[in-house]
TrEMBL record:
GO terms for biological process: negative regulation of cell division. GO terms for cellular component: cytoplasmic side of plasma membrane; cytosol. It comes from Kribbella steppae. Residues 26-35, 92-107 have a biased composition (Polar residues). SUPFAM superfamilies: P-loop containing nucleoside triphosphate hydrolases. Gene3D superfamilies: P-loop containing nucleotide triphosphate hydrolases. Residues 131-153 have a biased composition (Low complexity). InterPro entries: MipZ (IPR015223), P-loop_NTPase (IPR027417), ParA/MinD_ATPase (IPR050625). Residues 9-22 have a biased composition (Basic and acidic residues). One of its GO terms (molecular function) is ATP binding. It holds the Pfam family MipZ. Keywords: Cell projection, Cilium, Flagellum. This is MinD-like ATPase involved in chromosome partitioning or flagellar assembly. Residues 154-170 have a biased composition (Gly residues).
Amino acid sequence: MTDSHNSGQHKDREAAAAEVRRMWQPTPSWTQPDPNQVPERDPEPADEADEKPDALSQEFPGDSWSQPASQHAPWSQPQTPPPAPAQSGPSWTQPATESTSAWTQPASEPDEVDETEKATADTDGGDDQHGSSAEGGTTGAAPVFGGSSFSGSGFSGGPAAGGPAAGGQAGPPPAAGGQAHGGQQLSPAAQHFFPQGIPGQNAPQQQREVSYRTDELIQALPLPREAPAERGIRSALRLRPGSTERMERIARATAATAFRRPVTIVVANPKGGSGKTPTTLLLAGALGQARGGGVVAWDNNELRGNMHLRTHDTNSRSTVTDMLQAMPMLTQPDARLGDVAAYLRHQVAGQYDVLTSATTTYAQIEAKDFDQIHRLLSRFYKVLVIDTGNNEGSSNWREAMKAADALVIPIKWKSLSCAAAVQMLEELDNQGPEAQRLIRRAVIAVSNGPGDVNKEVEKQLRSYFESRAAAVVDIPTDQHIAAEGPLDHSALQPTTRRAALELAAKVSEQITIALNVPR
């Protein structure tokens, strides 16, 4: 019993190996023969040397390449059932719906295969029953490795391979892991020895999972294309902007930074005539044009400033004194921007509003007045640009420094203007850590009028201001500013507008740093 069992297992391995080798062998495509065709006469016997099998075929009797060319296919034999219970040929009673693909047959099928299968079925037909149909419900022995050679075309005629059993019941589908070369299915017996399929066969690549996360979908979107140039020949040809125009766009985007709260910019230099008011208006106009409004320029002179002389008188001649008198009404919860704008001057070209100082000396602005006005303007405006006076000791001047998020120091390359700025920086340096941080974030705005440049002063002090402040911005001489009339941004030279925009971008960068650094 043991010898018979071991012999059956050995034959199963040989039959499974023969099946795998036959599947790897390219087979021609055959068409289904006519069952009523008269079998052809046997050809003349070949030479004895041709009929004698070689050593390889003796060792592997199931290999198809050892079959002589004179042998016939199984279906060419007479339609008489073989004496053995196992049938190695296809079942001709297969329904037409299951034979959609072309039937393929190896070039030759040796008779030794039938004899080997018969011997295996007879040996194991007792206790082991390796060749019986395990799930088909039949008692007849089936081929060890699935039987029919028609499996090469996607169809297997034996019961174990999914074909109809002798009892009329369809066998189970082949196992999913038994993929052979070219998409063929291994029989259950071959899957026992090759559970992972044919060695060397490429596994199907898994399809990449599609992600529907919002951040990944947004990152997958293409970047917006850069807008064409707006000036010069590049604009006419719809080309990309040049380096100058591209830098101007970057500065405009930086100046339009959305801050998380209202911010205050203070323009200060104790020396009169150093360019505080023009610098304040240039900065407010550049920010207003970049941001589309929401900017107010405030003349915080304790007595009488001159901002009312440098701006257009649009629809209001009210001053800070009039606003202080209307403060009970303006501080109500239902107060609106239109109520506050009645006391301001709107500058159309720069898209900003102006709050002028008192025109008389009878009303002096104190610290408490500064606090009330600062809180009111912070409710309705996002950016406050404050022009200061010449008295560092006044209470409203000191309150402005305490509320400042950024400091702009206008100078001219003249001895008195630069000396006053240096003294102010030294005084602020002694006011504590907050004032020191404000100095490090300061921006120097150099605005020279005609004949105001002293080359020796510039040579000695430029490096000093560059080391103490965050940046130094040069504003070129503009005749419109030097005329000392109302400042209209549309009348400025292009180089002056670009310099003002650069100043606004530098200040916005320092404000962003100040808001992100914890105090």
